[in-house]
Amino acid sequence: MRALFFNQFGGVEQLQYGELPQPQITADQVLVAIKASGLNFADIYRLRGNYHIEPHTPYINGYEGAGVVAAVGAAVTDYQVGQRVFFADVPLAQAEYVVAQPEKLIPLPDTVSFELAASIALQGLTADFLAHDLGRDQPGATVFVHGLTGGVGQILAQMLTADGINVIGVTGNEAKRQLALQQGAKHVFLRSTDWVAQAQSGAPITTVYDGVGSALAASLNIVQPRGKVVFFGMAAGDPAPVDPVAMLSSSKSLLTGDLWDYLSDHSARLKRSQRLFSYFQAGKINLTPAQKFDLSAGRAAYKRLLSEHTGKIILTVGNKSSDVVRTAD
């Protein structure tokens, strides 16, 4: 099979594209032919060697994707060859085929494309648990979202808006600001301005969704007393240490969580994915089209992820569309 792989940790230059043996399934496993796989910052961390990665020789990155069942083990009864599926936590996904445990797979409706599923599996399910398990904001509340036009940010902001919540936030440039406004945000500040003062001058903020990390102190500063900061990532660097005594004195809370503690079983995957898809099927969430790269152009895709970009980046397998980048670098 064709795969994107690496033999040692490091930078993008370690990535290689070529033929590897096709994986074999056991009686309780499913073989999935990948049509599209998502690229995330966690893949950068795994490539560098500072994040958990599934042991394999050579290493194959990626945990998120969508495709068609190519084979099923003798003991598998829930899936059939030819069935459309997607997943958010099956390792070795940046390849032509991947082996999955049936409970990790989620049936993919015909109304959802492989490319969209690979774009929203991880980030969409993340937005779902942030909004509905941690934030739990009530209609009419005002919340602040960092990185409104990022992968999680676009989905989260529109999900909250659809739930009747007023969304404000901050982003990096005017084009991104206009996109966030078009997607329903009430007010969007530029990070180059005094956005903290601007945020504090408006309606009280009940929740701040912070996936950038380095802004955590500012997030705690702008949230109202008895409000909360939902912390879910470090896209812009590690946060400074938090003083719990200061939080105590202002009655502010810091919440965080790991998606995998919420995707605890197959029924949770089904319930959460159906809720996520319902927003898209009702036209309540519209995303910037994903930037698509052929699997053979994996280095270029990783470089794009590390550059200034908007929306999701996905790797496609066997996609003949003219808008897929196919250059090797």
Task: Describe the protein in words.
By secondary structure, the protein is of the alpha/beta class. It has 2 domains: 2-120 and 264-316, Alpha-Beta Complex (Quinone Oxidoreductase, Chain A, domain 1), CATH 3.90.180; 139-257, Rossmann fold, CATH 3.40.50.720. 29% of the residues lie in helices and 22% in strands. It has 9 helices and 16 strands. The protein has helices at 41-48, 114-135, 151-162, 174-182, 195-200, 216-222, 244-249, 266-281, 298-306, and strands at residues 2-6, 16-19, 30-39, 59-60, 65-72, 84-87, 97-100, 106-107, 142-146, 166-171, 187-190, 207-210, 228-231, 253-256, 291-294, 313-316. The strands form 3 sheets. Strands 3, 5, 6, 7, 8, 15 and 16 form a 7-stranded mixed beta sheet that branches. Strands 11-10-9-12-13-14 form a 6-stranded parallel beta sheet, with helices on both faces. Strand 15 (291-294), helix 9 (298-306) and strand 16 form a beta-alpha-beta unit. Helix 2 crosses helix 3 (151-162).
